[in-house]
Specification:
27% of the residues lie in helices and 20% in strands. The chain has 460 residues and is of the alpha/beta class. Strand 18 and strand 19 form a beta hairpin. The N terminus is likely disordered.
């Protein structure tokens, strides 16, 4: 997303308004409203030291395994990976017998808006979805995130270094996502991943039609959902054209601001990718057809329990899927769910990743990957650790538009790293140390060194 700090844009606008008579009309035009971020990140890395991790089994997130390997980190970046590296003043960590991976990435989290601990009234206290309208494209989930949710600490201690927080899936257009780092801060802007774009969460199928249909409102059917989505994008096309005409000087005044259309116009320009809650094969192919009609791409279908049926269509559209290993039985849309889903999509050359959708699963994403791979292996597929680690590292990094910064261990990447006590795909393994931007954010040998929310004060 082309982020322009609004304050800077406003300053430029004010300066041009005060320019002399020789200033051109074009120089006074305000920037497109959907290319600005009025709430920029205030994230600052935690205190950090240069670090040399020695003698580990390294899975780089890109399909490679290196035994007895070293990783050197300086100034928050990975500067070398190999054997026999020298420390050069860096702190040395002996990782012999342990494993190192990139930081785990949760591409579908509700941490901070569906907070821990869960209670019988958890939906009443949740801010996960704005359900007053099937089109909530004007909402930003970051405006609801409680940075003090203990789920962030739990995710960090499980090796998670980046999360995309999504709104819930009741509305067709559920609102904008935010990408964060699970660091101990008081407000969400201090968690926001600098320079990371937003996404638009959309939903199809049972959720929207059931909720709004039960209340006697539209949509109450799948065809009604598609009609509403198409109508909204038709409006967005007109809105975008109005801004382009204004930008080119063909129109003297900008269109009246519409926050819903700001978001949908940014989808049409490619500045905001779509992440869509969808289960059935037919629903996914229908939504890919709508995307093709309006000239945008769906970045990923989330849940996607029937993705194994439509891998060629997904590949042709350039669309990934984010899935569970074995969730089903809680709604009709899951009647054809199979455990082999992820492995089949992967084997057929599709783009697959694991997601959590809950704070509980978000603490076990490597185990989710292990479970999904295990059934694939039983089906005869070759899925070694160096491959399946990509399902929770480099592939979600690319899906978030951050593939050049996180998700892999390589020179120049952000030093988001996890040192595991053993094989990260074993239920007996713990995250020993977790680094974010080269800073030791969690140390299992000294958990009190990693501050948590007030709710956890006094706990061991």
């Amino acid at each position: 997303m082309r982020l322009v700090v609004l304050a800077a844009a406003a300053g430029l606008f004010a300066a041009t308004l005060g320019a002399g008579a020789g200033a051109t009309e074009a120089s006074t035009r305000i920037p497109l409203p959907f290319t600005t971020d009025p709430y920029p990140s205030t994230y600052q890395p935690l205190p950090r030291n240069d670090t040399l991790i020695q003698g580990a089994t390294v899975l780089d997130g890109l399909g490679h395994r290196m035994d007895s390997a070293d990783v050197l980190v300086r100034n928050g970046k990975i500067v070398a990976v190999g054997q026999g590296l020298s420390a050069g003043g860096a702190k040395v960590i002996n990782a012999k017998g342990r494993w190192v991976t990139p930081g785990i990435i949760d591409v579908h989290s509700h941490d901070g808006v569906f907070p821990l601990p869960y209670t019988s009234g958890d939906m009443d206290s949740s801010d996960v979805a704005e359900i007053s309208d099937p089109n909530a494209a004007d909402t930003w989930i970051e405006h609801a995130v409680n940075a003090q949710d203990p789920a962030f600490v739990a995710a960090l201690r499980s090796g998670v270094t980046t999360l995309q927080i999504l709104p819930g899936s009741t509305p067709l257009f559920s609102g904008r996502s935010v990408i964060v780092k699970p660091v101990p801060v008081a407000d969400v802007r201090a968690m926001k991943f600098p320079g990371a774009g937003q996404g638009l969460k959309m939903a199809c199928g049972e959720n929207p039609k059931s909720y709004f249909g039960e209340k006697g409102r539209a949509p109450n059917s799948r065809q009604g959902e598609i009609a509403l989505v198409r109508a909204a994008f038709l409006q967005a096309q007109e809105y975008l054209q109005g801004w382009r005409d204004y930008e080119s000087g063909a129109r003297p005044a900008p269109p009246a601001r519409d926050l819903k259309l700001d978001t949908l116009a940014a989808v049409l320009t490619g500045d905001i990718p779509v992440h869509m809650h969808c289960y059935r094969a037919g629903d996914m192919t229908t939504m890919m057809g709508v995307a093709a009609e309006f000239g945008f791409r769906i970045r990923a279908f989330h849940h996607a329990t029937e993705a194994y049926k439509i891998v060629p269509q997904l590949k042709a559209a350039g669309t990934c899927v984010a899935v569970w290993s074995d969730w089903w039985g809680f709604k009709m849309e899951l009647e054809d769910a199979i455990r082999e889903n992820a492995a089949i999509v992967d084997a057929a050359g599709g783009c697959v990743m694991m997601h959590s959708d809950s704070a509980t699963v978000g603490q076990r994403l490597t185990i989710e990957a292990a479970k999904a791979a295990a059934v694939g292996k039983r089906a005869g597929l070759k899925l070694p650790p160096e491959h399946i680690i990509s399902w929770v590292t480099s592939i979600p990094a690319r899906a978030l538009g951050l593939g050049d910064r996180i998700g892999a261990i390589g020179t120049g990447r952000n030093a988001d790293l996890v040192i595991w006590s053993g094989d990260p795909f074993s239920v007996y393994t713990h995250a020993d140390q977790v680094f974010i931007d080269g800073a030791l954010a969690y140390d299992r040998s000294n958990p009190r060194s990693s501050p948590g929310p007030d709710l956890l004060l006094g706990q061991p």
